[in-house]
TrEMBL record:
Protein known as: UDP-galactopyranose mutase
SUPFAM superfamilies: Nucleotide-binding domain
Entries under PANTHER family matching the protein: UDP-GALACTOPYRANOSE MUTASE (PTHR21197:SF0)
Taxonomic lineage from the root: Bacteria, Pseudomonadati, Pseudomonadota, Alphaproteobacteria, Rhodospirillales
A GO molecular-function annotation: flavin adenine dinucleotide binding
GO cellular component: cytosol
The UDP-galactopyranose mutase C-terminal domain, residue ranges: 144-351
InterPro entries: FAD/NAD-bd_sf (IPR036188), UDP-GalPyranose_mutase_C (IPR015899)
Gene name in the database record: glf
Matching Gene3D superfamilies: FAD/NAD(P)-binding domain (3.50.50.60)
Length: 368
């Protein structure tokens, strides 16, 4: 019988447990460091309000990916898509993000921006994030919407340091048409007030789950890990944590950006206008994003909870988009023996959202 070890009980670990069981694997052990499953997507409560550490709303273009989750975690679908605003202090105005062409005409420096847009050469040939944006939308829009936000997000002096970008945050530099961020995607969130939590229990019900458990040592070349002073050997290891941990920093540290989350309850029924799901803050303030959780969980209360995200180095949440960091990650992956897979957001060192994590597991386990 194949002995399977899954390291980490976030979405990637839980999906792995579910899919491997469905493929006939019966001896599955899942080790989770925290006292609960769900990782970043776990719903907690504060002041009676449900929240996750970030929005964690679900977006996919693939119906079967939505259905995969919807089967065990009934999901609400949003028909209109989500709209996000950015506050630009120098204009004293809120604008949509992604930057919307129609709103350029309302900006105090509209004439200058229109000239820069007309002259912008296009992103092809850009060598870093700064060039990508300046070549796409010109220096003024870059300066207002992207420069400060990105530098505080990544804690860097200049966006020229970001060399592996190949994307804009919402897939488009300057939007036309509807103001919603993702008009093509299926967008949703669980109906339940505890969000995705029930999924984590359902997905792992056939696995031996060890919560609050720390792996003390790794001997990945020999498929062994040490827990509570004893070595355990497996045939198949699915790791959803950073590969630098399971390979004991063999090639040096990968760089990560993190987040601190501040919670604030306000004595109002709602904070943001109906269509707006959250706010970006592109200015000098230390925070990046403000989320109103009621928008996702849909419940009535005379008070409201907002979450404020502050860039930090205290946790590993965002892999650095540089060619050097991506190359270092590849080195770690190439060092993994057969039948050890490094998946999920940290394991892949990629900006995977929930839907992409499901897709990654579907691809991996289809042939296993
Ligand atoms: C701020 C923020 C906002 C986000 N918003 C969205 C969103 O709106 N929509 C969306 O689809 N996605 C969003 N995401 C992405 C989403 O959170 C991830 O796709 C998802 O969490 C990936 O699951 P995972 O299992 O790979 O990682 P995680 O959720 O990080 O789970 C990893 C698990 O491994 C455990 N672990 C860590 N180290 C060890 C160890 N040494 N031993 C054992 N266990 C360990 C952790 O405790 C955790 O439970 C967001 C991410 C962030 C950081």
């Amino acid at each position: 019988m194949t002995k399977v070890l899954i390291i980490g009980g976030g979405f990637a670990g839980c999906i792995s447990a579910e899919m491997l069981h469905a493929k006939g694997y019966t001896d599955i052990t899942l080790v989770e460091r925290a006292p609960v499953l769900g990782g970043g997507c776990r719903t907690y409560t504060y002041g009676g309000h449900p929240y996750t550490l970030g929005p964690r709303h679900f977006l996919t273009r693939r119906e079967e990916v939505f259905e995969f989750l919807n089967r065990s975690c009934p999901m609400r679908r949003y028909d209109q898509g989500h709209e996000f605003l950015t506050y630009i202090e120098r204009d004293q105005a809120f604008y949509h993000f992604p930057i919307h062409r129609d709103e350029v005409d309302d900006m105090p420096d509209a004439e200058q921006i229109r000239r820069e847009l007309a002259e912008a050469p296009g992103a092809e040939g850009a060598r870093n994030l700064e060039e990508y944006w300046v070549f796409s939308v010109g220096p003024t829009l870059y300066d207002k919407f992207v420069d400060g936000y990105s530098r505080k997000m990544w804690n860097i002096e200049s966006n020229t340091e970001l060399t592996d970008f190949g994307f804009t945050p919402k897939g488009v530099a300057l939007k036309t048409g509807p103001k919603a961020a993702w008009t093509e995607a299926i967008s949703g969130f669980p109906h339940a007030l505890d969000g995705y939590n029930s999924y984590f229990e359902i997905a792992t019900r056939h696995a031996k789950v060890h919560l609050d458990t720390t792996i003390e040592d790794y001997d990945i070349a020999n498929y062994r890990v040490k827990i509570a002073g004893e070595w355990h050997t497996y045939d198949l290891i699915i790791s959803t944590i950073s590969p630098e941990i399971i390979l004991k920093d063999a090639y040096g540290p990968l760089r990560w950006a993190g987040r601190d989350f501040l919670k604030l309850v306000l004595p109002v029924e709602k904070i943001l206008p109906d269509d707006i799901y959250f706010l970006y803050y592109a200015n000098a303030e230390p925070f990046t994003r403000v989320v109103e959780y009621k928008k996702f969980y849909h419940y009535d209360s005379p008070t409201s909870l907002i979450g404020i995200e502050v860039p930090s180095t205290r946790n590993k949440l965002y892999p650095y988009p540089t060619k050097a960091d991506q190359a270092l990650h590849r080195r770690y992956i190439e060092a993994l023996p057969k039948n050890v897979f490094s998946i999920g957001r940290n394991g892949s060192y990629r900006y995977l959202d929930v839907a992409l994590t499901i897709e990654q597991c579907m691809d991996l386990f289809k042939d296993l």
